[in-house]
């Protein structure tokens, strides 16, 4: 089938609307909403949150604001971002895994880390890491071909593949020996400690909750494991004067451009943990959702495969030519944003588009809501990659898969290159279909996770 024929199919049919959880009733009690937030915030939002510009409510003794307008979001994340810090519940959940790394540090510590890490994530630096991405993806395809006769858990396959990419780009070695332990850490934390409890939400940060004691024990084991990985990489050495060969070299060589300081060992460990976890888990989840959507939408899947075949005919996959593949990734992250919620607490009084804000008020910017808002998108719940091919990009404050402003994700370019290349290779190699019709629903637990791992049938092309 030609690219033109596939395109004609896609523009004449009704777009796919994937399944989503039911919306909460707008009259849900505050207690009921807090319980839902602890389970999955996605299930705590009602109709108003998808239709109104700003939804004001109460959170314990303070006001809360859900922001759905680009002007308000720009004010909080760009114009006055230093007045808005992470919430205590967010710190409780993230710190045991990420320590004081870039993702959750604040103030001077964050500025120092951002300045120091920036050279390691430039497009030029990422280009040197692409061979690791390609090799790991090709190895995954080889393994999947051997298993293509029966049902396949592509979510697990994507987790293994992105973990392998994370290990190789970080340390120049595979994760054969350490992958199982790392996955166990991630699964243990996600299933038991990543969901905030009621006490996590109501107690001040300085008052430990029962979950906090468990998180502290977890962190001790986790930091020892990360230290083991770093020691193994250091034992492999580095030739004096040789260019950096991986992210560990790049981060170890990094110096603050203002002070000349390098990271301490503890700081480097927190950065390693942040990059491995943020890098592999979010990309694995985005690739899973993309494969799920394409399995539900065979015509779009064939359009992507036709693009890949056309680009590959030139000999290599040039990512700049994979425009439709990139649009599928962009649309996937619109419907299933890796970070579904950005929660901030006001450090001092402010005014947001005419709404007075007091100290400690809670500000919620939810990409899950923003990306499906009735006023910002046409057919907001539909899977329509073509919306990213119009030549007019969405408002940068209405589409936030990697955040925006000073704290935009430093690894965004890395993640987009990895996800686009991997999806192109996978769909270029296989047709994917689901083995059952039970819907897969999103759950908000740090990232936008599926509520189950469906089995896929894959057929070599």
From TrEMBL:
SUPFAM superfamilies: Cytochrome P450
InterPro entries for this protein: Cyt_P450, Cyt_P450_CS, Cyt_P450_E_grp-I, Cyt_P450_sf, Cytochrome_P450_monoxygenase
Keyword Ribosomal protein: no
Entry keyword set: Heme, Iron, Metal-binding, Monooxygenase, Oxidoreductase
Biased composition (Basic and acidic residues): 1-11
The keyword Electron transport appears for this protein: no
Family of the protein in this entry: Belongs to the cytochrome P450 family.
Superkingdom per UniProt: Bacteria
Cofactor: heme
Stretches the record annotates as Disordered: 1-25
Pfam families: p450
Organism for this UniProt entry: Bradyrhizobium jicamae
The protein, known as: Cytochrome P450
């Amino acid at each position: 089938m030609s690219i033109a024929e596939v395109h004609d199919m896609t523009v004449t049919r009704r777009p796919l609307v994937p399944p989503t959880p039911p919306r909460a009733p707008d009259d849900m009690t505050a207690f009921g909403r807090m319980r839902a937030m602890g389970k999955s915030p996605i299930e705590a939002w009602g109709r108003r949150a998808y239709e109104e510009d700003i939804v004001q409510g109460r959170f314990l003794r303070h006001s809360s604001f859900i922001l759905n307008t680009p002007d308000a979001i720009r004010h909080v994340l760009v114009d006055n971002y230093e007045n808005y810090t992470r919430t205590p519940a967010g710190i409780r959940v993230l710190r045991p895994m990420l320590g004081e790394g870039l993702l959750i540090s604040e103030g001077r510590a964050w500025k120092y880390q951002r300045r120091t890490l920036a050279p390691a994530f430039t497009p030029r630096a990422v280009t040197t890491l692409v061979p690791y991405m390609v090799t790991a993806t090709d190895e995954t395809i080889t393994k999947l071909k051997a298993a293509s006769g029966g049902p396949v858990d592509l979510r697990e396959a994507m987790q293994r593949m992105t973990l392998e990419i994370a290990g190789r780009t970080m340390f120049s070695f595979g994760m054969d020996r350490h992958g199982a332990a790392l996955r166990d850490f991630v699964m243990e934390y996600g299933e038991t400690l990543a969901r905030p409890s009621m006490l996590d939400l109501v107690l001040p940060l300085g008052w430990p909750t029962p979950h906090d004691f468990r998180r502290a024990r977890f962190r001790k084991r986790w930091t020892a494991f990360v230290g083991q990985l770093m020691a193994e990489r250091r034992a492999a050495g580095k030739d004096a004067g040789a260019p950096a060969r991986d992210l560990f070299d790049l981060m170890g060589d990094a110096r603050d451009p203002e002070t000349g300081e390098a990271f301490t060992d503890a700081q480097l460990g927190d950065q390693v943990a942040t990059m491995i976890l943020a890098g592999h888990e979010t990309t694995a989840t985005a690739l899973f959702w993309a494969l799920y959507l394409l399995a539900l939408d065979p015509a779009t899947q064939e359009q992507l495969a036709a693009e890949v075949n056309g680009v590959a005919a030139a000999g290599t996959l040039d990512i700049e030519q994979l425009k439709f593949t990139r649009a599928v990734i962009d649309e996937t992250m619109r419907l299933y944003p890796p970070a579904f919620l950005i929660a901030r607490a006001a450090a001092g009084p402010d005014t947001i588009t005419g709404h007075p804000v007091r100290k400690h008020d809670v500000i919620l910017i939810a990409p899950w809501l923003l990306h499906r808002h009735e006023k910002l998108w046409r057919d907001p719940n539909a899977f329509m990659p073509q919306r990213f091919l119009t030549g007019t990009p969405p408002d940068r404050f209405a589409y936030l898969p990697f955040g925006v402003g000073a704290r935009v994700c430093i690894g965004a370019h890395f993640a987009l290159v990895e996800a686009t290349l991997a999806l192109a290779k996978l769909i270029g190699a296989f047709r994917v279909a689901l083995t059952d019709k039970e819907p897969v629903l999103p759950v908000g637990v740090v990232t936008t996770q599926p509520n189950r791992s469906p089995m896929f049938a894959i057929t070599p092309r």
